[in-house]
Write a structure and sequence with these properties.
Elements (H helix, E strand, L loop, with lengths): L8 E4 L9 E7 L6 E2 L4 E6 L4 E5 L4 E6 L8 E2 L3 E6 L62 E2 L5 E4 L10 H10 L17 H6 L8 H5 L13 H16 L2 E9 L1 H12 L9 H15 L5 E6 L2 E6 L5 E3 L1 E3 L2 E3 L2 E2 L7 H16 L13 E5 L19 E14 L8 E14 L5 H16 L7
Parallel strand pairs: 1-9, 14-18, 18-19
Antiparallel strand pairs: 1-8, 2-4, 2-7, 3-6, 4-5, 5-10, 6-8, 11-20, 12-13, 14-17, 15-16, 19-20
Helix pairs in contact: 6-7, 6-8
Length: 454
C-alpha cells in the first residue's frame, strides 16, 4: 500500500529522556496541512520525567496525525505522524494508516523499579538501579519506504498533569492554592492557562442541599498518578526494600554559622546572597572527604559486588517542584567556594521547578541533602536514601534554645540557634560507627564554619 502514497517521512515517538521507553501524546500544536519549520513545536509529549515539547528539526508539511491527543503508552519508535515536502498533495494521505507507516510495536512491560528516578545514575554506572540493568525493548525494523525521523530534540516543560496546557508559574500557583487546574479556562495563546487565570479562578457554587441530598455524590476524587509520581513511588519503594536504612540524629549549633553568613552577605555588594543550605551542602562535602566510606555506593559489575568509593563529592539537592521531587546535582562541591555553590543551587533549583534540567544535571550524585528548614513546623524528619547513594541528610528548622551562659562570671543563660539533622545511611555500605563518625565531622565543621573557608 505504501507505493500509492507520494514521498513522505514517518515521524516516530522520540526518546526525550535517557530512560524513556514510551510516552503519552498531549496536545498537537500543528494540524494536518500546517507548514513546519525547524524548531517548531509539533506536539506535547508526557515522558517518565515531565511534559515536554517535541520540537521538529526539519522543514515540511504535516500530512497526517497517526496518534491523537490522549493516546497513552506509545512506545518509542512507533509512528505518530507523517511529514511531506511543501507542494505535496496532503489530501492523498487521508487514508494513510499505522500499517502503511510500518506498523507499531507494543510498549514495553513496566516492572517495579524499571523506571529510573529523577536523580538516577547513568546507564553505565554498574548499579542494580541504573537504566542499563533494566530490560529494554528491541527496536522494530522500519518499513522499506517510510523514513523514520531522527529528530528527538525536546525542551522540558513542567506539568501538574499532562493536560491542560499551562505556564509553569500558573501550575506552581495552582499547586500552592489548591486550584483544580483542569477546571480553569485559559485565556493565553491557544487556550494556555496563565498565572492571572489562576488568580481569577472562583470555585463553582455547590448545588442546592436538596439536590445533593437526593444524589449519592462521591466524597472523594480519584486523581490519576502522573508518570513522574509513578517513578518516584517505584524508586522510593525500591530503596526502602533493598537498602537497610538506619538513622543517626544530632543537634547542631548554627549560631556561629549564621553570624558568618550575615558578615559575608553584608560584604558581598550584591554579588551573592548565601543561604544556610549553601553552608550545609559545603559541610556535607567536607564530612564526606573526611569519612569517604559515606561517599560510596553499592554496585554489581559483571556479576561481582563492589563498593564504589567516589573521589569527588557530587551533592544532590532535594527540590520540590509542581510535578514531584527533583534532585539536581552540584558537582565537585569539595572544590567549590560558598558563592559558587549558592549560584549553582539557585540556578538548578529554578530550572528544576521550570522543568528545564538536562538529564546529566539530575542523574548521578554521591550524597543528598534534603532541607525542610524553611517550614518552621518541622523540628526534624528522616529521609529515604536516593539509590545508589549510601547516605542522605535531613535538615529541620532552626530553633532558639536557652543554654548555660559561656561567660564564667555569668550564671544565667544565653540563646543558641540550633538545628536537628538526621542522617539516613545504607547499612550494606556504611556501618553504624562510620555513620556516627560522619555526623560528628559534619557537626564539627558546621559549629566551626571558618573551616569551610580553608
Amino acid at each position: 500500500m505504501d507505493q500509492a502514497f507520494p514521498p513522505h517521512t514517518v515521524v516516530t515517538m522520540p526518546a526525550l529522556s535517557p530512560t524513556m521507553t514510551s510516552g503519552n501524546i498531549g496536545t498537537w500544536q500543528k494540524a494536518a496541512g500546517d507548514v513546519i519549520a525547524p524548531g517548531d513545536v509539533l506536539v506535547e509529549i508526557e515522558t517518565d520525567k515531565a511534559q515536554m515539547d517535541f520540537e521538529f528539526q526539519e522543514d515540511g508539511v504535516l500530512a497526517k496525525i497517526l496518534k491523537d491527543s490522549g493516546e497513552k503508552d506509545v512506545a518509542v519508535g512507533n509512528p505518530i505522524a507523517v511529514m511531506v515536502e511543501e507542494g505535496t498533495d496532503v489530501a492523498a494521505f487521508e487514508s494513510f494508516t499505522l500499517d502503511d507507516a510500518g506498523g507499531e510495536k507494543a510498549p514495553p512491560a513496566k516492572e517495579s523499579g524499571e523506571e529510573a528516578a529523577e536523580s538516577s545514575e547513568p546507564a553505565d554506572s554498574g548499579s542494580q538501579t541504573s537504566p542499563s540493568t533494566l530490560p529494554k525493548s528491541e527496536p522494530k525494523e522500519s518499513a522499506p519506504e517510510p523514513q523514520g525521523s531522527e529528530s528527538s530534540g525536546g525542551r522540558l516543560q513542567t506539568s501538574l498533569e499532562r493536560e491542560p496546557s499551562a505556564s509553569p508559574a500558573a501550575k506552581a500557583l495552582a499547586l500552592e492554592r489548591g486550584v483544580p487546574i483542569k477546571k480553569v479556562k485559559g485565556t493565553g495563546p491557544g487556550g494556555r492557562i496563565t498565572k492571572q487565570d489562576i488568580e481569577k479562578y472562583k470555585p463553582e457554587t455547590s448545588a442546592a442541599p436538596s439536590a445533593l441530598a437526593g444524589s449519592a455524590a462521591p466524597t472523594y476524587e480519584d486523581i490519576p498518578a502522573s508518570s513522574m509520581r509513578k517513578t518516584i513511588a517505584n524508586r522510593l519503594q525500591q530503596s526502602m526494600n533493598q537498602n537497610p536504612h538506619y538513622f543517626v540524629a544530632a543537634t547542631v549549633s548554627v549560631t556561629k554559622l549564621l553570624k558568618l553568613r550575615q558578615a559575608l552577605n553584608s560584604s558581598a555588594d550584591g554579588k551573592y546572597k548565601l543561604s544556610v543550605n549553601d553552608f550545609l551542602i559545603k559541610a556535607s562535602a567536607v564530612a564526606c572527604k573526611k569519612v569517604p566510606g559515606v561517599n560510596s555506593s553499592w554496585r554489581e559489575i559483571d556479576g561481582q559486588v563492589v563498593i564504589r568509593q567516589h573521589n569527588t563529592v557530587d551533592v544532590s539537592v532535594a527540590v520540590a517542584t509542581p510535578i514531584g521531587l527533583m534532585t539536581p546535582i552540584v558537582k565537585g562541591v569539595e572544590g567549590l567556594g560558598l558563592s559558587s555553590i549558592s549560584a549553582q543551587v539557585k540556578d538548578l533549583g529554578k530550572r528544576a521547578r521550570d522543568g528545564k534540567l538536562k538529564p546529566e544535571e539530575y542523574q548521578g550524585g554521591t550524597f543528598t541533602v534534603s532541607n525542610m528548614g524553611m517550614n518552621a513546623a518541622i523540628d526534624r524528619f528522616t529521609a529515604v536514601i536516593n539509590p545508589p547513594q549510601a547516605g542522605i541528610l535531613a535538615v529541620g528548622t532552626t530553633k532558639k534554645v536557652a543554654i548555660p551562659s559561656s561567660a564564667e562570671e555569668d550564671n544565667g543563660v544565653e540563646w543558641d540557634d540550633q538545628v536537628v539533622v538526621t542522617g539516613s545511611f545504607d547499612h550494606k555500605v556504611v556501618d553504624g560507627a562510620v555513620g556516627g563518625e560522619w555526623i560528628r565531622e559534619f557537626k564539627k565543621v558546621v559549629e566551626n564554619p571558618l573551616e569551610m573557608l580553608l
